[in-house]
């Protein structure tokens, strides 16, 4: 409706202009043709009159030029008016199509200012439509841990505004593929398809090009998209990872219909003086057309580019320019611009609001009259959010909005658009449909099947396990209220750590800021932080443990909890124990005895002798001896006090020690959420699989005090919670009996006797 009103106002303005401009012009000319109250002839035949001075000659020539200018303006206005009358509002074509009104680009190499005027003026006439269910193809080059985080924010901004199915083509290295494949698989967004292309295989295509840009070799890979992407893909929008959308990407997709002739590249003019070569003394950029073009947002007509032999075109250009330039400074952008300099007909210039560049030395503030005009924001400075711009607070807030936006809300269906069959989604729906919604424990049972969006390796991770095959990873899970334990654990355990963090999108960003501000955490590259995003009302403790267990790179793991501090030197002690007890060839679970303190400030014992002294003094206690003795009683602390060699203990009901096991041990059972039986069930299954429990005589860990968790409060205060937990326990034991047969009957007997 707003677009129609704008169109009518534009129509009226054009009409009035056509009517009044000629009239006013001729009145002005007529009045100016009098001198001393008498008319002055404009005929050249009368130019020799004595009264015709040199001054009046110049005046007349000026008037004639003005007449020609006005007539030209009138012709343009009439043409626009006739086009507007002929087009009218776009017709609706049923429920299966939608027309997006698109702003006009210049389509040629005009100045930035001309691009602003032409670009920010909307025309409301009928434009080429993007069908409602037409798939929009987007290509992104992504490598590493940080870029993977950036991609998520970009994708959120696209999903937030989109009305069309999307197909993302991700050119990713092994790290980014692992992270993003898991993320999208667990995100389960309808009408979104993801395909990966191995960036490492493409390195040989561009590795011969020296590049000084911080993006490295991956910053050159957009050059080979015609070769990399499927041969039947005709067009694609190519985006940098540091892009934020403020509108529906379908509007940009519709611009393809405006390409004419040999135009195959849609680009926004560069908004800095980089390619003018005047930023500093002896600054020598690559050749470019005027200010050049920025490649953060590119529209590629792949089919035409292939016919033009794009591969040969850019390679020859790069080889020629590198003879004098020696290397690229802005990666692929330099080569794209060098090609365009030689072949300006290839480019369709997009309005600058499709790529508002917040780089150093940018002129982006001249690109828009109001921030509401913006379509795409490009954080193309190494400073990112710290870049200078008078509207940077607005840009930063828009970016942070998507950064912290709950990604689960983007799992909305596109009504009227059939989605491709997703086996995982169909299986999930089938499992949920089999649950009884009238069951009082329905929410507990449903949680077992909930798919939580998961972002692996949220921070940089770099670790190669020891070559002697004795390496051990500490595994734990936590939520936001336990972040303060991370630094202490890192100081106590120098080996690799795998952590699953249960956070909301906003909390994940708080964690990121916390970690980046910690010298202790930033100095450790062997800690894998895996974000499992919040969903539902329960804390999925065993899912978190499974996520952390699954993503370790060592042959052994120490299954701990975040509230425990391991003794100093435990990492090396466990590696020696692995060899001593032949863990590689036997089914053993090595028990690390657990103790606790009620003091928030503790002088941590540096030896077993010091710990025993603190036990005798009442500074330390065996873990949960006063509230849950059965949980750790089988460890036999009395024997441990004097033990000098490992000793074996038998499983007993409710036993839940902290153990070191091989990485191929069974997962935790997901039916147990929140508080209660989550570790007990796992130890029971280890026993059913005939693991031997062995207590380590010189190992210990100490539980640090903290406020009661929300889940234990629910357990204590909610009778239905306790009833459902009891029901789940019974069902687990029945499953054990079915799976392990006669040997599992002892668990039912032990439970009845306890």
UniProtKB/TrEMBL annotation:
<keyword id="KW-0808">Transferase</keyword>
<dbReference type="InterPro" id="IPR002495">
    <property type="entry name" value="Glyco_trans_8"/>
</dbReference>
<dbReference type="InterPro" id="IPR029044">
    <property type="entry name" value="Nucleotide-diphossugar_trans"/>
</dbReference>
<dbReference type="GO" id="GO:0042285">
    <property type="term" value="F:xylosyltransferase activity"/>
</dbReference>
<keyword id="KW-0511">Multifunctional enzyme</keyword>
<feature type="transmembrane region" description="Helical">
    <location>
        <begin position="12"/>
        <end position="31"/>
    </location>
</feature>
<keyword id="KW-1133">Transmembrane helix</keyword>
<keyword id="KW-0812">Transmembrane</keyword>
<keyword id="KW-0333">Golgi apparatus</keyword>
<dbReference type="Pfam" id="PF01501">
    <property type="entry name" value="Glyco_transf_8"/>
</dbReference>
<dbReference type="InterPro" id="IPR051292">
    <property type="entry name" value="Xyl/GlcA_transferase"/>
</dbReference>
<feature type="region of interest" description="Disordered">
    <location>
        <begin position="81"/>
        <end position="108"/>
    </location>
</feature>
<keyword id="KW-0328">Glycosyltransferase</keyword>
<dbReference type="Pfam" id="PF13896">
    <property type="entry name" value="Glyco_transf_49"/>
</dbReference>
<protein>
    <submittedName>
        <fullName>LARG1 glucuronyltransferase</fullName>
    </submittedName>
</protein>
<dbReference type="GO" id="GO:0035269">
    <property type="term" value="P:protein O-linked glycosylation via mannose"/>
</dbReference>
<keyword id="KW-0735">Signal-anchor</keyword>
<comment type="similarity">
    <text>In the N-terminal section; belongs to the glycosyltransferase 8 family.</text>
</comment>
<comment type="pathway">
    <text>Protein modification; protein glycosylation.</text>
</comment>
<dbReference type="GO" id="GO:0015020">
    <property type="term" value="F:glucuronosyltransferase activity"/>
</dbReference>
<keyword id="KW-0325">Glycoprotein</keyword>
<comment type="similarity">
    <text>In the C-terminal section; belongs to the glycosyltransferase 49 family.</text>
</comment>
<keyword id="KW-0472">Membrane</keyword>
<dbReference type="GO" id="GO:0000139">
    <property type="term" value="C:Golgi membrane"/>
</dbReference>
């Amino acid at each position: 409706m707003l677009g129609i009103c704008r169109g009518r106002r534009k129509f009226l303005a054009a009409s009035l202009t056509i009517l009044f401009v000629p009239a006013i012009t001729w009145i002005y000319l007529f009045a100016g043709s009098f001198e001393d109250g008498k008319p002055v002839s404009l005929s050249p035949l009368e130019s020799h009159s004595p009264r015709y001075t040199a001054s009046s000659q110049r005046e007349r020539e000026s008037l004639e030029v003005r007449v020609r200018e006005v007539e030209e303006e009138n012709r343009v206005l009439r043409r626009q008016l006739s086009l507007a009358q002929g087009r009218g509002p776009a017709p609706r074509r049923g429920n299966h199509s939608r027309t997006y009104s698109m702003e006009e680009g210049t389509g040629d190499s005009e100045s930035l200012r001309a691009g602003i005027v032409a670009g920010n003026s909307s025309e409301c006439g009928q434009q080429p439509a993007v069908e409602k269910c037409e798939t929009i193809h987007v290509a992104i080059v992504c490598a590493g841990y940080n870029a993977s985080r950036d991609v998520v924010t970009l994708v959120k901004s696209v999903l937030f505004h989109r009305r069309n199915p999307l197909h993302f083509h991700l050119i990713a290295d092994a790290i980014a593929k692992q992270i993003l494949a898991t993320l999208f698989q667990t995100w389960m967004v309808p009408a979104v398809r993801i395909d990966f292309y191995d960036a490492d295989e493409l390195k040989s295509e561009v590795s011969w090009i020296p590049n000084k840009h911080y993006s490295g070799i991956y910053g050159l890979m957009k050059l080979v998209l015609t070769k990399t992407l499927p041969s039947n893909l005709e067009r694609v929008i190519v985006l940098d990872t540091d892009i934020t959308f403020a509108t529906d990407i379908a509007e940009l997709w519709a611009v393809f219909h405006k390409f004419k002739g040999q135009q195959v590249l849609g680009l926004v003019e560069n908004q800095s003086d980089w390619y003018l070569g005047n930023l500093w003394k002896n600054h020598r950029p690559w050749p470019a057309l005027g200010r050049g073009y920025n490649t953060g947002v590119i529209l590629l007509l792949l089919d035409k580019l292939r016919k033009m032999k794009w591969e040969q075109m850019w390679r020859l250009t790069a080889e020629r320019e590198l003879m004098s330039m020696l290397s690229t400074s802005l990666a692929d952008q330099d080569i794209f611009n060098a090609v365009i300099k030689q072949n300006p007909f290839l480019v369709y210039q997009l309005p600058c609001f499709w790529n508002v560049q917040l780089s150093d030395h940018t002129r982006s503030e001249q690109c828009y009259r109001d921030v509401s005009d913006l379509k795409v924001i490009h954080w193309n400075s190494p400073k990112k959010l710290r870049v200078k711009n008078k509207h940077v607070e607005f840009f930063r807030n828009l970016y942070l909005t998507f950064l912290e936006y709950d990604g689960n809300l983007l799992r909305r269906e596109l009504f009227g658009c059939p989605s491709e069959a997703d086996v995982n989604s169909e299986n999930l729906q089938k499992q949920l449909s089999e649950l009884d919604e009238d069951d009082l424990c329905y929410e507990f049972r449903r949680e077992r099947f909930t798919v939580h969006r998961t972002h692996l390796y949220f921070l940089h991770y770099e670790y190669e396990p020891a070559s002697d095959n004795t390496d051990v990873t500490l595994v734990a899970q936590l939520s936001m209220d336990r972040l303060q334990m991370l630094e202490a654990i890192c100081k106590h355990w120098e080996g690799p750590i795998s952590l699953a963090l249960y956070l909301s999108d906003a909390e994940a960003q708080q964690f990121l800021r916390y970690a980046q501000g910690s010298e202790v955490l930033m100095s450790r590259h062997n800690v894998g932080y895996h974000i499992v995003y919040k969903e539902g009302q329960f804390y999925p403790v065993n899912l978190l443990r499974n996520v952390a267990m699954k993503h370790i790179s060592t042959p052994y793991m120490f299954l701990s909890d975040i509230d425990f501090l391991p003794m100093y030197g435990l990492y090396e002690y466990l590696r020696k124990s692995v060899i001593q007890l032949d863990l590689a060839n036997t089914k053993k679970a090595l028990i690390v005895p657990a103790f606790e303190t009620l003091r928030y400030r503790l002088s941590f014992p540096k030896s077993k002798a010091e710990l025993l002294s603190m036990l005798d003094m009442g500074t330390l206690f065996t873990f949960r001896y006063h509230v849950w003795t059965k949980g750790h009683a089988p460890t036999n602390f009395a024997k441990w006090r004097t033990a000098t060699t490992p000793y074996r203990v038998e499983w007993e009901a409710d036993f839940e020690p902290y153990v070191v096991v091989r990485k191929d041990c069974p997962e935790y059972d997901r039916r147990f959420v929140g508080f209660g039986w989550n570790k007990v069930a796992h130890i029971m299954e280890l026993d059913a699989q005939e693991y031997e429990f062995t207590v380590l005589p010189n190992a210990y860990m100490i539980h640090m005090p903290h406020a009661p968790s929300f889940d234990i409060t629910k357990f204590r205060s909610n009778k239905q919670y306790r009833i459902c937990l009891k029901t789940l326990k019974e069902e687990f034991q029945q499953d054990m009996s079915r799976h392990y047969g006669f040997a599992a009957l002892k668990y039912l007997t032990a439970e009845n006797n306890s």
